Amino acid sequence: MKSAEGAAGDRPSRASGSHGSLAPLATVIGVIIAAHLSLAPRIAGVDAFYHLGHAAAYVHRGLFDTSFPWATQSVIGDLGADIWWGLHMVLVPFTVLGDVATQIRVAALVFTSALAASVWWMLRRHAVPGAGWWTALFLVAVPNVLFRYLMVRPHVLSLAAALLMLSFLARGRWWQVLLAAAAITWVHLSLFWMAPGIVAAYALACAVARRHPGDTDTGVPLPVAFAAVLAGTLLGWLLRPHPFASAELAYVQIVRLFEEKASTRPLIFATELLPLPFVDVVRSAWAFLLAWIAAHILGAAAHIRGKGRDFPLPERRLLAASLFISGVFLALTVFTARRALVDLTAFGFLALPLVWTWLVPGTARRRVGLTMALLLAVHLPWTAWRHSLNVRFVAVPGDDLAQAATWLAANSSPDDIVFQTHWDDFGPLFARNRVDRYLGGMDPIFQYAHDPGHYWEQFYLSADLIQDYTCDAFPCYEGKATDTWTVIREHFGARWILVEPRRNPKLSLYLSKSPHFELALTTRNEAIFRVLDQPTQTSNPPGS
What confidence score (pLDDT) does residue 370 get? Predict the structure, then answer.
């Protein structure tokens, strides 16, 4: 990696570093390909099935038809809106690539490559030497974050747009800021707060990194920047079908979710929505945190000693803003949701090449470089090991529920409702079988907002707590207990039950012995039961 040594105040040449060499490009491509190949035959996240399935539904029903009848127990189906409409439009071209597993793998490769290209281009436009090498390090900085870069989910694209928006604020034009802000909100409406948050952090950075005589200010003036972000955010919201219904869904996903997380009720959430204790942050991101803390120290020391005069104003502001933003996301990771670790890592990492380029003296480069090499020698094998654990325990098979979905499509009547015992089964079923309907998918808060009573009735069965009856409240004694057949057949209108015995051994055993249900199909991991119209005996559940 070529350094940026020279006289104080000399700006590194844009032609320095990785330009003209194929080694950094080969390294970045190698990291991306190796990471994706390591997943085979699995994929990084179950949500990808939902998003590709939804994109395919648009292809068949029309790009502006956001009705969603497949989710019978979800406000997504009630409102007929789509907060991920922009993402699904991006995914439409991938729906021609054979089976859904192939579509996911190709889309994931493109998404990761787009993120890496954005980071590389951003670093080059800020004249960071060795931008390609830094991009490779960006990808492998934290193994759990690398795993999330391999997903077909909106955060990969919105993160690229967010990083570029910060760059445009420091060196760019108002229309670039506007387009980036619009892209963030268009891809995922629930992230509408991201662009205003970034411009607020940039304003704080401008207050800290003041302009000195001789500085060239290439940034967007703050009043113009705030106006551009506001306009872009509004465009990203309005450029979709049914924007106001979509806003209601965003309210549910943000406000209702936080309200319920603050309660003592044991709602089922994806693990990513749970806080990550600081000790676990250190365990999962220790190498990055060491470098990030060092960047804070060097940045603060340079500011106190007035060395900012040798540091170009745009990059000085970019450094301060990246540290502010990553600090906020550290708090969000620890106190709110562990998925904020992705943003903590991405924005925090930007500080490292800037500090190396402008704040590490030439006389200290050898010592610091040796320390970094030793750190990488430990970090890279550890990253590979941690990544392999994610592949083994978190990634899902590309053919997840494929046999069950195909069988149901061939043997059920159109619009039959399938009672799936777990919310995350929705995506794999929906992607391959849009003949039938289901309870709900994606964030469980959408099911809870539709009908809390029905949510709890599914909850007890999903958690394998009780089998012959279930309740419409938590705790159970505060609500009404109803036998399982009545709940499934009459409350949910389901004609089929899909259950995974390894996740619900007790419920599976109950269904196999009950005269109310008939085993229709057994696969390697699932069992499908037919819900009989007339039970042959009557259950008298406790508390009824």
Answer: 87
pLDDT of residue 14: 44
- Beta partners for 224? none
CA-nearest of 48, 145, 141 to 101 is 48
pLDDT band at 103 (very low <50, low <70, confident <90, very high): very high
Instruction: Round to whole Å and give the CA distance between 333 and 347.
Output: 13
Q: Give residue-wise pLDDT tens across range 111-142.
A: 999 999 999 999 999 999 999 999 999 999 99
Alpha-carbon Rg for the chain, nearest whole angstrom, is 26
Query: Which are the contacts of 148, defined by CB distance < 8 A and separation ≥ 6?
Result: 44, 45, 155, 156, 339, 342
Count of other CB atoms within 10 angstroms of residue 397 = 14
How is domain 402-531 classified at the CATH fold level? Rossmann fold (3.40.50)
342 pLDDT exceeds 50? Answer: yes
| CA–CA separation, 91 and 82 (whole Å) | 14
What pTM was computed for the model?
Answer: 0.91
Q: b vs e for 34-53, b when ≥16 Cβ sit within 10 Å of the residue's Cβ?
A: ebbebbeebbbbbbbbbbbb
Residue 544 has pLDDT above 70, yes or no: no
Question: How many contiguous H segments (helices) and E segments (strands) does the chain have?
Answer: 23, 8
Q: Are 328 and 344 in contact (CB under 8 A)?
A: no
User: How far is the CA of 294 from the CAs of 322, 356, 410, 421, in angstroms?
Assistant: 14, 11, 60, 48
- Spatial distance between the Cα atoms of 505 and 500, rounded to a whole number of angstroms: 8
Distance of alpha carbon 65 from the chain centroid: 25
Place of tokens 């290439």: 218
**What are the domain boundaries of the chain?**
22-393, 402-531
Task: Judge contact between 430 and 50, C-beta under 8 A.
Answer: yes
Q: What is the three-class DSSP state of 473?
A: coil
pLDDT tens digits along 172-223: 999 999 999 999 999 999 999 999 999 999 999 999 987 777 778 889 999 9
The whole-number pLDDT of residue 307 equals 63
The identity of residue 340, as a single letter, is A
Write down the pLDDT at residue 506: 96
CA–chain centroid gap for 486, Å, is: 37
Cis check for the bond before 41: say yes or no (omega within 30 of 0): yes
Instruction: Give me the count of residues in the chain.
Output: 544
Alpha-carbon distance of 138 to 155, in angstroms, equals 16
Q: Which residues contact 288 (CB under 8 A, 6 or more apart)?
A: 141, 142, 345, 348, 349
